[in-house]
Structures are given as C-alpha cells and as structure tokens.
C-alpha cells in the first residue's frame, strides 16, 4: 500500500512537466502487434491485470547477453627495460581530460602521420586542438566569418639548417577556420631542438606545461613577448637561463594555414597485444594519483579498441595512421590524476614477416603531450540529484533530476556564443543539453543477491543515440532496462547502484526560427561514469511498483463499482417498485452493470497507464516502454466504449422524454371532456 500511495503522490508532482513521447517505426509496429493481441484478450475478467507484467515479458525481443568486463592485473609487468618512443615516429597526445565523482577519463590520440605547418625560415611546428569540431578539411565559408578554435603547440622539430622559430599567434585557413595558439605542451622538442638558434613565444600563449622545453641548449635564445612568465606557465617549463621577456614580435603573428609535409617515417607499431602466455602484452597506462599531500603511482590495463582482434596497431603496414583510445580511471574521494605523469607502456615494433610484436626489439613507452586546455568536470555542465526507481512488466526505470549549469559553453565556444547571444536572449535560439553517443554507452548495475553484491553491465538499448534534457533550468531524464538481462535474482528493490558509463555530454545551439542546429555550435565531451542512483551511500530512493499499483487500482475500482451498483440496485428497486416504466428489472440491471463495469474499468486503467507512462516511467532515452502497449490498447477500447456509452445516454434521454410524454398523455385521458376545451 505505501508503494501505491507513493505512486499517486509522486505522479501528481511530475505529470505536469512530462508530456513527451518518442517512438521509432519499429517500436510502433511492435506495439500494434501487441495491441491487437491484448485487445482480443481484454474481454476476459479484469482481475488478470495483476499477471500482465509476466505475460508481457514473453513478447519482448530475445535478451541481450550481459556484457562482462575482464581486466588482468597490470602490476605483473616490468617496464624497467623500456625506452621512450621517439616522437618523430609516433605522435601521442592527451586530447581531453574529464572527471565525475567516480572516474577521471582521458582521450589519447596516437598518430603515425601528422599534418605539419612548415616554413623554410621557421622550421616545423606540430599542433593539436582540443576542439573535436576542428579540422584542416573544414568547408569554405564564402563571405562569412571564419569559426575560431584554440590550438596548442605540442612539438617543434629541429631544422636541417640554423633557423629561428616563431610560434604563430594565429593560424588562418581563409574563411574555413581560425586557430588561436594559446598553449604549449610538455616535452615539445622532437629531436633536442637541433639547428634551432632562437624560439619566439607570443603573448597569446597562456599556458606552458611542465618540462615543455626540456633538453633545450643554453645556446638557444628563448624570447617572450610577455613581460614576465604568466600564471599559466608552469615553474619548470624551461631550465635554460637564456630566456628574455618583453621582446617585440619579430614578424607576422599569423601563419597561413597551408598544410605542409605529413609527419611520418613509415614506422608501424603494435599498441598492445592480447595473446596468450608471453604474447599477452596489453597496453598499460601508468600515472600518479594525488590525494591532498599523498601521491601514489598506479597502473591500469587499457582494453582493446578494435573488435574481433587481439591487438591494436598503427602505421602503414596495418593500414591505419591514427587511433584514439579512451581510458577511464576509477577515483576515490579526493583523488586527482596528474596528466603530466601519464605514460603508455607495451608499445612494440612489428615483426617483418607477420603482425606480431617484436619482443626481441624491446618495448617502448610514450609520454603523451598535453593537448587540452583544462580538465572538464561533469558539474561544469549539469548537477545531478539522486535518482528514483520504478518497475513494471519486467522493466526497471531510473529517473534523475538534472539542473543545467551555465558558463562552460560561453568559455569553450566563445565566438559562436557571442555571435548567437542576442538570439539566445530573445528566445529565437536555444542552448540544448543532451546525453550523446548512447549507442556506445552502458548501464553498470550493482544489486544484492542474498548476502553478496552482483555487478552487471548491460548496453543502453536505444535506436537513437541522444537524449535531450527538456524543460527549463531543471529537467528530468528517465533510463530504462530489462530485468531479464540482469539475471533471475534481480529486483529493483535490491538495487545498490546504477551508473551510466562511456557517454558523451553535448551542448549545441538550436535556431528556433529555422528549426535547425547552428553550424559548428556543437560541443561534445566524453565522460567515464555517472551515478544515476545510489542506495548505499545515499538515502533510499523512491520506489514505485506499477504492477502492484495496477492490481490495487483494479481492486479498489471493483470494490467501489460493485458497492455502488449494489446500493443503487436496492435503492432503485424500492423507490420504483410501483412505477411500471422505471421498475427494476434484475436481469437487465446485471447485464448493464457488467457491461459498464468492464467499460468504465478500461477507462480507469487507461488513465492509470497514461499517468504512469508520462508521470513515473517517462522514458527520455528512446527505448521500448512496456506501458506504451497498455496505453494504446486501453485507450482505443476505452474510446470505443465511451462512444457507445454516449450513444446509449442520448438514447436513454430521448426515451425518458417519450415516457414522460406518454405519462402526461395518459394522465390527460382521465380528465372528463366537458366541452369547454
């Protein structure tokens, strides 16, 4: 009973703000088939509704196999004999860092062929951008304003003859793009700054990472336009004393965006091999984790990025010149991973005759350059309140309350934001918040089974890979999964924790006047793991058992209808016992009452399922919702009954008028005609 009362109270609060529904063509066809089946069965007694959840499960698709995550202990490996992989052979860049309360996630880009900006006087400069929308192949924008992106120097290659290097302030690609160079990564010297006589750093450089100019010779003059080291320049960015501040820029601060050479020497590498025995040499990440004043070195095996294979590889021999790796590092409260200490191990050359790691040639490690501006936390985008759990017909839904956070979009997409700010302010455009790339996401579910905790991972089954957070500042998002995918012991009441894993959070601007997404406005950031519900560390979540609520609704409706019908029967039988037109006919009354019991019961259940669908189990992520079938079936049958009921009411009203007229005429026959009329 508490679950039923809670369902009613909670629904009243939520139903006002949740009135949207999404269905794919496949879902609609599926629901039509189920609707026909249920319509034929609806003539049976309404008491079977209590078992509808079990029956519905047999009409679902075959259960997807539960995903299993298996990792081997990285501490079994010895990296003492490894040597650092030359940057000119394989460029490795940390392109993003994001955190939630559970994970810190890194995206690592490895490339054996990198586009370079080359000039005979300046040498070669390698750059990275933390914006996934940036590309040297952006389309032209005739007559328009070039979109702006932030770029970062992550490597400088020595020249073949004595040269002065001028780091550009801006790289322009005509009307296609404008790349603002605002940072310098760590260890940018590819080959110890050979033949470089001077390096000029413009005032646009706001951040310089640790050991950026490690190994630079005292004979190389480093000139800075800034009058002093900026706050974003790490104290150990350079060890040389040949550094000068307040130096005027010696030349043009803009570098034309003509792509020069492709940075490649034909080398190919295996980045992790997952064979048996000695051939189990997976890619391993090492890093330092800080927690206050405590620093701890940790290791983690990186999973395969390719499917149906036992290795990842890069280079001309394997037909791939780039690979992107996502790494999620579990965090304890207060933990922070130091990206400057990040290393990748077990990188091997490839044997001459076949695609196998060259074990005898030795292993390499890579120290990625930092190619991101700042670490992004999920709280920069949204605040998530503890979720609630609901269940119906073998499905469990988790609802979370989301508060949108302003500011980060204006910071990371400054030019686009400023351009469309007037439209945003007057409501002609909207900044949209959404969970994105859900086709690659998973639910991590922990639940109690007896005295132990079971951990399962299941895919997010959705034909649409995004989920908009609708509403104003605060919105609600519903996630649904099938209980059978988690095993026979699973119950929504035994949930300890549910997380959303491997998802992107996306912001973009939607033009309400043209009904289209603004070009280049998308900002997408990947996160590792987000808590949807936690019944262990947080207060117990609200639970709504719609199976029980449906059964109780039927029982309560039946009791009220039967009690009211019985009371009316005896009342009418006594009141109209001498009225030949309205005298109670028991057989006819029972037939009418039974018909109305079924008909009005269907309408009551339609209202119940509609309220449950848009009030409690309002699934935001497009997926099969078991309530949809019941809403359709009881809605159609209820409307048919309501039509007949209205027709019968009209007929009854007309018949009552005829009866009254007949009675009036009959009474008139008793009056003696005295000839005066």
Model description:
- The protein has 677 residues and is an alpha/beta fold.
- It folds into 4 domains: 114-262, no CATH class; 265-373, no CATH class; 377-541; 546-668.
- 23% of the residues lie in helices and 33% in strands.
- Strands 1, 17, 18, 19, 20, 21, 23 and 24 form an 8-stranded mixed sheet that branches. Strands 5, 6, 7, 9, 10, 12 and 15 form a 7-stranded mixed sheet that branches. Strands 29, 30, 31, 32, 34, 35 and 36 form a 7-stranded antiparallel sheet that branches.
- Strand 9 (170-172) and strand 10 form a beta hairpin.
- Helix 1 crosses helix 7 and helix 7 (586-616) packs antiparallel against helix 8 (627-668).
- The protein is elongated.
- The relative contact order is 0.14.
pLDDT < 50 stretches: 1-74, 256-261
Major sheet details: 8 strands, mixed
Count every beta strand, where a strand is a DSSP E run of 2 or more residues.
37
Q: Which radius of gyration do the C-alpha atoms yield?
A: 35 Å
| Overall pLDDT confidence | 80
Q: What distance lies between the first and last C-alpha atoms, to the nearest angstrom?
A: 70 Å
Proportion of residues in β-strands: 25-35%
Q: If helices are DSSP runs of H or I spanning 4 or more residues, what is the number of helices?
A: 8
Secondary-structure class: alpha/beta
Q: What kind of oligomer do you see?
A: single chain
Structural domain count = 4
Q: Roughly how much helix do the residues carry, as a percent range?
A: 10-25%
Mass-distribution shape? elongated
């Amino acid at each position: 009973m508490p679950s039923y009362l809670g369902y009613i109270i909670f629904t009243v609060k939520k139903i006002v703000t949740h009135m949207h529904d999404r269905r794919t063509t496949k879902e609609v066809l599926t629901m039509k088939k189920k609707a026909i089946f249920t319509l034929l069965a609806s003539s049976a007694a309404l008491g079977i509704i209590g078992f509808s959840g079990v029956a519905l499960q047999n009409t679902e698709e075959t259960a997807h196999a539960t995903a299993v995550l298996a990792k081997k202990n990285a501490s079994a490996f010895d990296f003492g004999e490894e040597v650092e992989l030359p940057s000119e052979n394989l460029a490795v860049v940390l392109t993003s860092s994001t955190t939630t309360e559970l994970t810190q996630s890194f995206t690592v880009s490895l490339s054996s062929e990198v586009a370079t900006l080359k000039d005979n006087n300046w040498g070669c400069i390698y750059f990275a951008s933390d914006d996934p929308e940036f590309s040297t192949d952006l389309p032209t924008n005739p007559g328009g304003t070039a979109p702006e992106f932030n770029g970062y120097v992550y490597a400088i290659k020595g020249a073949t003859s004595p040269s002065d290097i001028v780091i550009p302030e801006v790289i322009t690609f005509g009307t296609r793009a404008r790349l603002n160079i605002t940072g310098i990564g760590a260890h940018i010297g590819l080959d110890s700054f050979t033949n470089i006589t001077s390096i000029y750093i413009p005032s646009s450089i706001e951040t310089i990472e640790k050991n950026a100019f490690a190994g630079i010779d005292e004979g190389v003059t480093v000139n800075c336009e800034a009058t002093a080291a900026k706050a974003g320049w790490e104290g150990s960015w350079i060890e040389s004393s040949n550094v000068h501040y307040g130096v005027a820029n010696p030349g043009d601060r803009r570098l034309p965006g003509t792509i020069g050479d492709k940075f490649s020497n034909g080398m190919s590498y295996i980045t992790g091999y997952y064979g048996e025995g000695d051939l189990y040499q997976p890619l391993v990440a090492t890093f330092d984790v800080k927690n206050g004043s405590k620093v701890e070195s940790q290791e983690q095996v990186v999973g395969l990025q390719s499917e149906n294979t036992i290795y990842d590889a890069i280079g001309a021999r394997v037909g791939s010149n780039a690979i992107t790796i996502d790494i999620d590092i579990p965090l304890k409260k207060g933990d922070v991973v130091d990206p400057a200490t990040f290393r990748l191990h077990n990188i091997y050359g490839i044997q001459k005759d076949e695609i196998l790691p060259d074990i005898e040639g030795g292993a390499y490690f890579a120290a990625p350059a930092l190619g991101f501006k700042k670490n992004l936390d999920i709280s920069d985008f949204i605040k998530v309140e503890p979720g609630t759990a609901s269940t119906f017909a073998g499905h469990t839904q988790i609802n979370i309350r989301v508060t949108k956070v302003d500011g980060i979009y204006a910071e990371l997409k400054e030019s686009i934001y400023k351009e469309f700010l007037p439209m945003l302010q007057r409501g002609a455009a909207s900044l949209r918040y959404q969970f994105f790339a859900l086709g690659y996401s998973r639910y991590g579910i922990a639940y109690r089974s007896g005295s132990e905790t079971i951990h399962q991972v299941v895919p997010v089954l959705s034909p649409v890979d995004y989920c908009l957070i609708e509403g104003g500042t605060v919105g609600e998002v519903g996630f649904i999964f099938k209980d059978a995918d988690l095993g026979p012991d699973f119950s929504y009441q035994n949930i300890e924790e549910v997380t959303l894993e491997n998802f992107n959070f996306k912001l973009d601007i939607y033009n309400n006047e043209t009904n289209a997404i603004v070009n280049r406005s998308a900002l997408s950031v990947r996160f590792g793991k987000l808590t949807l519900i936690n019944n262990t560390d947080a207060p117990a979540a609200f639970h709504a058992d719609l199976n029980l609520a449906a059964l109780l609704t039927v029982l309560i409706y039946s009791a009220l209808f039967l009690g009211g019908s019985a009371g009316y029967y005896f009342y009418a039988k006594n009141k109209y016992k001498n009225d030949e037109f309205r005298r109670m006919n028991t057989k006819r009354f029972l037939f009418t009452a039974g018909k109305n019991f079924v008909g009005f019961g269907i309408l009551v259940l339609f209202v119940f399922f509609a309220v449950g669908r848009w009030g409690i189990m309002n699934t935001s992520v497009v997926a099969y919702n078991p309530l949809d079938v019941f809403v359709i079936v009881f809605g159609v049958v209820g409307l048919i009954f309501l039509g007949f009921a209205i027709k019968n009411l009209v007929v009854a009203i007309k018949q009552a008028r005829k009866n009254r007229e007949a009675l009036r005429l009959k009474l008139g026959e008793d009056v003696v005609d005295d000839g005066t009329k």
